[in-house]
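Working notes for the structural subgroup meeting. M.R. asked for a predicted model of this chain before we commit to crystallization trials. I am recording the input and output together here so anyone reviewing the notebook later can reproduce the run.

Input as submitted:
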Amino acid sequence: MYKLSIFLTIGACILLFGANSAAENSEKRIWACKVSPDAEEDLWLVEMGTSSSYVKLYGNRIWGNFSYEGEDRRWDFDRRSDGLARYSAILKPDNSVDYYDFEGAKAGEQLAPSYHYTCRETD
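Returned structure, recorded in C-alpha cell form:
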C-alpha cells in the first residue's frame, strides 16, 4: 500500500509539472524588431511568462526579468555589478520599443532611450 501511495504521488507531480510546462510554452509570444523599415530585424523579445523570458539581440539569447508596467511589457537584462539592469526594452501597445542602455548610468538617473524599434508579433 505504501509503494502504491508513493507511485501515485510521483505520478501526480509529473502530471502537474507537465501541465505547467505545456501552459507556459503555449503562452510564448515573440516580437521581431528593427530600428528602421529597411533594416534587418536584430532584436527579438520573447515572453514566456514572468519567470523565463529573454531577449535575442544580434543572435545572442540573453535571459532576463520580464514584467508588466500597465499596458507596457518590460524586459530587464544583463545585470551590472551593482545588481541593476544594464539594458531594458519596453514594448508599448503600438508595437514600438524603447531600448535603454544603462551602462555607466547612476542608480535612479533618468535617461532617454538609446534606440527606438518597430516590432511585429510573430506566429
